[in-house]
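User: Working on a comparison across species. This one is FAD:protein FMN transferase from Candidatus Marimicrobium litorale. Can you predict its structure so I can line it up against the others?
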Amino acid sequence: MGGPVRFRMEVDDVGLADAAVTAAVAEVERLERKYSRYLDDSLTNRINLAAGTGEVVPVDAETAGLLHYATTVWRESGGLFDLTSGVLRRAWDFRSGRLPEQSEIDAILPLVGWDKVTWDEQGVSLPLKDMELDFGGCVKEYAADSAAAQLQRHGVQCALVDLAGDMAAAGPPRHGPGWPIGIRHPRARDSAAATVILPQGGLASSGDYERCMEIDGVRYGHILNPITGWPVGGLVAVSVLAEQCLVAGSAATVAMLKPASQGLEWLEGLGLPWLAIDRDLQCHGNLLEGGSD
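Assistant: Here's the predicted structure for FAD:protein FMN transferase from Candidatus Marimicrobium litorale:
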């Protein structure tokens, strides 16, 4: 999942807690094995290896549900949320300190486009050799929701799942309105830009600070526009609270992919609690209203 997994919970029975944690960890590991593009035997890798062959790789109901969701967000975002855009990493090495040539990006862009993917409830096919699906844009948030659901099924009603910053609460702590969560400052790694309270549901954040490089005073983050192939230049950090971490994560990502003013309009129109930080490090949004520090 690309980072540490943490569970916080309040329980009276240690045995119950152990069983719940075991089930939640197993669920995260199951999704990792199934969808990680780094594992040779994952479903994702099987789909990608079949690209350009005409083979339809069978999928189950869970995967079909994720494909439905990805299609909806792709449509609603005007093509900005695109699970085929991971191939752009071939042009962008953020450890190199080097900008790719436009020709390198242009050579990859024909492999990007959710509208090229053929899929239904039974299977999925990628028409072009070297095309890829990358569920990394949604599966970590989905895993946070799934792990929280496992905790609840095993009798834990006060818990917080943290998958490398993607949060899902199975219920608030007993003696407070919710779990206090620090929103990382985009330009000060060990500082919080704000603290919010998460009673239940999901909280996800997206920003230009996890993988980036600075060249000639310009910061290039890892969030790439699937239409242009270049890093986004709008907002620098976005956090969204929603009933599901999956929804919160895609909402935050789409806002990051838009120009700053359009990203703020997108967030405002969702009707969800949100916080965005612009390039002047000014905060926007309603996530801090009512019950937050």
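For your comparison, note: Residues 61 and 121 are 7 Å apart (CA to CA).

User: Helpful, thanks.
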